[in-house]
Structures are given as C-alpha cells and as structure tokens.
Amino acid sequence: MIHIEFSGVPGSGKTYLCTSIAEKLRLEGFSVHTGSANLASAPLAVRLFRKTGPVAIQTVFHPVRTIRILYTILSTRQSSFRGFLRSYTTIVQHLSLTGKFTKTNTILLLDQGSVQALFTLLYAARSAPRTRIESFLPVPDILVETDGPDELLVRRLKSRPVAQSRVEADPVAGIRRSRTVLAEIKKGTFYSQIPVILPVLPERTDETVDMIMKTITERTTHDQ
Predict the structure, then answer these.
(1) Domain holding 91: CATH number?
(2) Burial class of 93 by CB neighbour count within 10 A (0 to 12, 13 to 18, 19+)
(3) pTM of the model
C-alpha cells in the first residue's frame, strides 16, 4: 500500500487536489481509497456512522492503543471538549483506515491524514504532547503540502456558504494560527520520518496535478 496525504492550512486546496488525483489514479487502474474526502455532502446519518464506526471498532479491538491516544490527547490539555473529540476521532479514524488497506496494489489517498491529525491535536492544545506521536500515528509515504497567498485563502474561506470551523469563522487569524501549528509539527521527529515531502501552491491546474502524479508514480515504482 502507498500511503499519501495532503496537509496545509484551510482553503489551500487539499480536498480538491486529493479528489482530482484519485480520479486520475483510478483511470490508470489503481485501487484508490480516499477515506472521508467527500463526506461533507453526505446525509447527517451517514456522516455520524462513518465517524463513530471506526472509533467503536478501534476501541473494542485495540484497547491499549486507544488508551495511549486518550492519554496523549488529555496531556495536551485541550481548550474545549469539542477540541478533545475532534482530535480523538480524527486520529482514530486515520488509524482504522491505514490498518484496513494493506494490499500492495492499493493507494490510500487522504486529505485528512496523520499530519492533519497531529494538526488537529495541537490546534486547540495548551501544551505539547507528552508522548512520541509517531509511535502510534502511521507515517505517510508521500506528503503533499499545500499553501498559498493569504488573500487567495481568505477569499476561498469566505466564499463557503457555512463556516465549518473556527478558522472559517475568522479566516485571517485562523490561517495565521494554522501556519504556526504546522511550523511546530515540522520541527518534530514525526515530520522528519516522512520519506517524500512535496510542497505545492494551491493552483488548480493540470500541471499541478501532473507533477503530483509523477511523484506518486515514481514512488509506486520504487516500492515495487
């Protein structure tokens, strides 16, 4: 399995690129799984099931790992119960996905992966994690980092009909805070273990998609 993730501040094109590349990979004959990339438009009952199902399975079948995750999140002194739930469900969902798809011909393509899980964990935290997060968070084979000019990101966030997070409610402050958290992640040992890191601007062009596709193809050939 090739494990690919997209990470970046809100509005920087993670979901768009993830969806575009997934379509191209499927056309080339790959077995591609994108997790919950298209979950936002699903009915409420479907969203709840997709979010709580993996959490329940991981809790029942991996209690030791679950306890470690809980301890790590609690040690960060989350500023709200909502922040705690967001961190916990994001990490557990990601663990269940990476554990499910293990076949060599599979590509796991996530716009909410382990780096974003770490981002979620630290975003509302009052202190850094006390444990080495890489000991239970899977490290991706390829990380695509998206970013762009503040003006473009703010415009995209403001154009969304409903604010889905506090970043979208206050885009300027949220983007600034997001970049601060991502900068902290880059200083840690988790980030240093990622084999391939590909920075891209949020340009929604065929050239950007082709560049990412070339890196994925090279990595796929290397692993085979």
Answers:
(1) 3.40.50.300
(2) buried
(3) 0.86
Picking from 112, 123, 111, the residue whose alpha carbon sits closest to that of residue 174 is 123
Provide the residue range defining the domain that includes 10. 2-223
Half-sphere CA count of 181, side-chain side, radius 13 A: 26
Cα separation, 213 vs 219, in Å, equals 10
Q: Any idea what the Cα angle at residue 200 is, between residues 23 and 111, rounded to 5°?
A: 50
Walk along the chain (224 residues) in steps of 10 and give the mean pLDDT of each run.
90 87 89 68 68 81 88 91 87 84 81 89 88 88 91 86 66 89 92 93 79 84 62
H or E stretch covering 196: strand 196-200
Interacting residues of 182 by C-beta distance below 8 A, sequence separation 6+: 7, 8, 9, 119
pLDDT, tens only, 184-205: 999 989 999 999 999 987 777 7
- 101-138 confidence digits (pLDDT tens): 776 778 899 988 899 889 989 988 999 888 888 888 88
With CA atoms as reference, report the closest residue to 140 among 184, 198, 87. 198
Euclidean distance between CA atoms 155 and 136, whole angstroms: 36
Q: Give the number of domains in the chain.
A: 1
